[in-house]
Amino acid sequence: MKELKHYLAAVGVAAAAVGCSTVSEVEERDAYAQPNWYVDCAESGAEGRFWWREEYVYACGLGESRFVQAAEEEMYAIALNNFARRMSGTVDSRTSVYFEDGAKSSTSSITYSVDTTLIREHVTEEKATFRHGGSFHTFVRLKMARSTFENLMEEASNERRRGRNG
Question: Hey, what's the torsion of the CAs at 145, 149, 150, 152, to 10 degrees?
Answer without folding.
Answer: 140
